[in-house]
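Troubleshooting log. The previous structure file for this entry was overwritten by mistake, so regenerating from the original sequence record. Sequence copied from the archived sheet and checked twice against the printout by T.R.
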Amino acid sequence: MQLRQKYWLFPLLFLFILACNPKPAGMSEAEKLDNFFAKESVKIVVTDSGLGGVSVAADVVERIKTAGVFKNVDVIFFNAQPHINSGYNSMKTNEEKVAVFNNALEAMDKNLHPDLILIACNTLSVLYDLTNYAKVATIPVVGIIETGVDLINSRMEKSKKSKVIVFATKTTVEKGKHKAGLMEIGYPEDRIVTEACLNLAGNIERGPESDTTKALVYKYVDEILPQVNEGDELFVSYNCTHYGYVDKVFQQAFKDKGIEVKEFLDPNPLMANFIFDEKYRNRYDSTEVSVKIISQPELSPGRQAAIYELIAPTSQQTADALFEYTFTPDFFEWESVAK
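Regenerated output below.
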């Protein structure tokens, strides 16, 4: 009888443990961020489909060295492009894109054990909420769309004559989250111009100063000209993390067309601002920072060199990591998903 009573207590004990330790997946985003900032050592994973998001990683690496937010920080940039010859914008269906990115996120979580994921890619940011990982993530995952919308709004709100041109990838434009976010604030649709720039990101990686890259920039600037009216106070927004790398080319293209642009907007440097809020700063006298770059597709010496030149002025440590990157062709499965 005593033995039965002893075993009868086990289910009650199990229920008590569950009650004291609820599933982390039920936490709000605010609670996840609170847990992140409660740590003294963290691992931050920055991801993109390609190398545009390396600029975000570089910004985090340099700013966090002197902010005193954490004692130790490991920054990992992971290139979640499935293959050198296959990207998300070339996949046929939205379901394929979501499934492949979900596999990438699950692999990042399992293999890298991040405390925070920054999705430094507009294309992947618009897909994130549709992934299974988004439903069960126990860590904060922050995309770049809201940063872009906030930046555009901060400029457009100053004038009723303002108009924005959103340059982005095909997937980002099709999902329309920037336009929807701005219209929700109250901007009419005719003040928001979106332009899908097919193949521009890949060509920027292969050669930001190449004739092909310049020709594509001029082509897409030409295509939006009919929607620019005399008297518009024009803003140009780079809503692909690669496009800021060719800011000078965009500026020259508009100048050559005789179009005055009030400001060219790049959300990349602002994406991680929340990490450096005053309430978290100066908690530690010094911070040890490491940086690592991992890529599913192989990076050619040409791509490494091209991005190195663009990143080095911001962070030499991050630029150097490009030449020491880890090639992981089987980091996550994609071929069985993307038909």
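Confidence is low (pLDDT under 50) at residues 1-24. Archived copy saved in two places this time.
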